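Lab notebook page, bench 4
Experiment: in silico fold of construct C2
Operator: M.H.
Input chain length: 444 residues
Purpose: comparison with the prior construct
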Amino acid sequence: MSSTLLWLNNDLRIHDNAALALAAEYQQPLICLFCVDIRWLKNNRYGNRSMSDNRWQFLSESLADLQTSLIHMEQQLYIVPGLPTKVISQVIEAHDVSHIIRSQHCGYYENRDWLFLKKKYSKKIFCDAITHTLFNKTQLGLEGNLPSSFTKFRKHVDNLELIPTIGIRKVLPSPLRLDIGQEDSCHLRKLATNAALPFKGGETNGLIHLNHYFSSNHPSTYKETRNALDEWSSSCKLSPWLANGSLSVRTVVNKLMQYEKEHGTNDSTEWIFFELLWREYFQWYAHQHQKRLFAFKGIGKKRPLTSFCPQRFKQWCQGQTNWPIVNACIKQLNHTGYLSNRGRQLVASCLVNELSLDWRCGAAYFEQQLIDYDVASNWGNWQYIAGVGADPRGGRHFNLDKQTNLYDPQKTFIRTWDKDIQPRAYLDAFDAADWPDEPSDHQT
């Protein structure tokens, strides 16, 4: 009997999940699969891994929460380490898979794997569902011509209707037992919990935080507090759950609109939507530019006047530069997996402008460390700072002393974080024998 494969990636939730709903429509035995890409935990060309311990902890919590939700729906989540193309091929061939469903993804490498599978199994039905954005390609009507700046994009979408959310399905087709030598999630090597991690992964925790935030008065003061370096309530703090799809961005916007209906609209609530539009812009920016997201020249034609100096880069990564505010930000990032938006701009400006380092080194380090890593927002924002992306001003250079006086005048943040903090060891998620000898080509 034919079966349906749901390949989960950036959609680790039950609510407003069009991919899950589509997979259920076929009324065939259903396989819910998440691939732990082995390239995530290997060193890349910059000497970093794509996933630090903190990122893995947040992802593991998210997967465990999704597993619980699926069990309640009489389904099963399979978490399989390996190269996605090999894992998916094994599943397709072993279980007579006729339909392969996933959420639309803006990542170049994720799309390359998807296109490889579509070509290899051309007689199968492959479907993308839109779960990660506010709009779809048809609505935008851009035909590959994304506006060159965020301002133009914001005006373009100003009168567009958001994609409506999808209700939660109460019943799913029956699961299939995989037979490809996979490891169930409970057999993955456990990681010591980092108590300093300010976020706990999973849809359940994401929805709790969303409801808590919009049950407070913080949305009405967001614009005044958003540049704070360390205060928990200063910003929405929704990005980790949005990044891996534990939260639907459309659900967030609906919650914001409900808040405005009850409490009124002001500059702060409008600014929250403004920030979500920035996220949206970078999603479509990545869709359009694909591999150029990782290019040294970015989407431009001029090479930046920067290079790679291993010693300077190491000092930046360890928070041992000449700028205390940068050191404090980096050490907070290393210890907690999170950094405020203002902090990210400061350390990025330092790397590009003060240290004259290749911006891609910083972007790759953020990819490793940030629990809210999103390929589009991360690499798009780094291009923006470096002047090789969507910034019409040609990059951003911050005066670090002035920024310190503005956002940490009493040096409270610096005293808290610019000190010796033991960094976490890298994760060894699987035994060495589990790792195929495959080269990693992530980030070109």
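Observations: The first helix runs from residue 18 to 25. The chain has three domains: 1-131, 203-292, 294-417.
Next step: discuss at group meeting.
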